[in-house]
Write a structure and sequence with these properties.
Belongs to the membrane-bound acyltransferase family. Sterol o-acyltransferase subfamily. By secondary structure, the protein is mostly helical. It is built from 19 helices and no strands. The chain has helices at 2-19, 24-50, 56-62, 64-67, 89-114, 120-127, 135-142, 144-159, 164-188, 194-227, 260-268, 286-324, 327-363, 381-387, 390-406, 411-434, 440-446, 448-458, 461-493. Bound molecules: coenzyme A. Coenzyme A binds at residues 382, 385-386, 389, 392-393, 396-397, 401-402, 405-406, 411, 415, 418-419, 422.
Length: 496
Amino acid sequence: MGERGAGAAGLGRRKKTGSRPLSTSSVAELEDAEEETLSRRKSLAENGRERGEPCPAQSQAARPSDNQFRCHKLQESLLSSASGYSNYRGILNWCVVMLVLSNARLFLENLIKYGILVDPIQVVSLFLKDPYSWPSLCLILASNIFVLAALNTERRLASGAFPESLGIFLYTLNLGTILCAPVLVVFMVTSITSVGSVFALGIYTILFLKLYSYKDVNKWCREKRKAKVKALARSMSAPVIKANGDMAHSVVFYPGNVTYRDVYYFVFAPTLCYELNFPRSPRIRKRFLLRRLLEMLFFMQLIVGLIQQWMVPTIQNSMKPFRDMDYSRMIERLLKLAVPNHLIWLIFFYWFFHSCMNFVAELMQFGDREFYRDWWNSETVTYFWQNWNIPVHRWCLRHFYKPMMKRGVSKWMAQTAVFLASAFFHEYLVSVPLKMFRLWAFMGMMSQIPLAWFVAKFLRGNYGNAAVWISLIIGQPIAVLMYVHDYYVLNYEKLQ
Ligand SMILES: CC(C)(COP(=O)(O)OP(=O)(O)OC[C@H]1O[C@@H](n2cnc3c(N)ncnc32)[C@H](O)[C@@H]1OP(=O)(O)O)[C@@H](O)C(=O)NCCC(=O)NCCS
């Protein structure tokens, strides 16, 4: 009550003074009195600190009756970095809302300008020129020959009928044909379309990488077998019993793996790296499978629709500035194309690496579902390539990079060699179907090496992450426009 009474008395006194006008001398007196009180408090606090006593503020805080009136504490504003605040979920939602709104405007503008361009019949014509000729499908079915050739070579190598040198020769022939045969077909068969060729060549490239891995792993098994011949006398396929009594997938030992069933399981499995015993999931989850299937169908339609409605007209409108070498209009077109291109690429990522790969994995009870890692947090270009496409990265490490490093090749040389190989396959998948060799994809991939060096040396944290995003958002449409421009000049301008 004493404290409160004093406070109330003080207030009353101030009110009284406030009710009548103050003379200049009384104001000066009041200021002097306040200054004196302040300096007295200060000296008291200093003396107290010297004696190890709490300062007046602290001692007030300790008094429970004062706590009731306190509404301030020592704290930073949320947006200042010293506050340590990091929950920006609401801001992220705002970004998404803004993105949807601004894209909705673009979408409406596009609809008003061009009308509805989505045409499912046109999609069929991208795959087939002649309804009675299906060259891409025939090419894909013919790829079985190479699988069977690899299996039979392995069988003979395993039984000792073929020496290792003959095995190397046959594999070189088989893998070389896998890369060359579809190129010949694409150039010779006129009824094959560019989109159909991309599919066929993509499947042949995957098969090339898979059979290369198949060859390596079986060779490693033979080398191991040579080292422990005795132990392997008893090591053919043996069933394993689970703890609950169920029959688990049998564990296979070399050469028990060299069978049709095993090689075809690998050919269809969502991985490029062969293993004798893949990790297997215990059962097929039907709801999971159905969700992935619906996603696959929906996102495929969405990608095709966005390409027809948004990308194609933008590309068509970009031809004139590129022909006239009008630089400011070229940059404007490039930035315009960057938005749909990037959106389609992101949807493609989810469609392929999440929906399709998980669908196939679930169907085949393939247990390892690490098809991608958090590449979106990449602060360096190296991190991006290590995490965005795990099947390819794993293959590169296991069958190309590490063997080179073990042979004493320097890290820089080995990385350059991996990017060279990757650049070759990127160019192979674009140039052959377009029947035009321009090396834009090759250069795009090779430019990752200096870009990786630059980002690692000069940029850190969020700046590095922004640099990776910019390179993805801008880099891809540059390559797309280059190819389309060259294709247009080569195929249509000549006709005019
Ligand atoms: C080139 C590339 C393989 C380098 O990968 P990286 O992870 O940066 O390479 P690192 O130097 O960090 O080494 C990776 C591995 O090699 C191992 N290694 C390094 N030196 C070694 C040596 N002398 N002997 C054996 N192993 C070695 C490391 O221990 C590490 O092993 P871990 O993965 O088991 O931890 C990678 O950037 C890549 O995959 N690039 C191409 C990607 C691509 O083209 N993708 C196409 C997608 S469309």
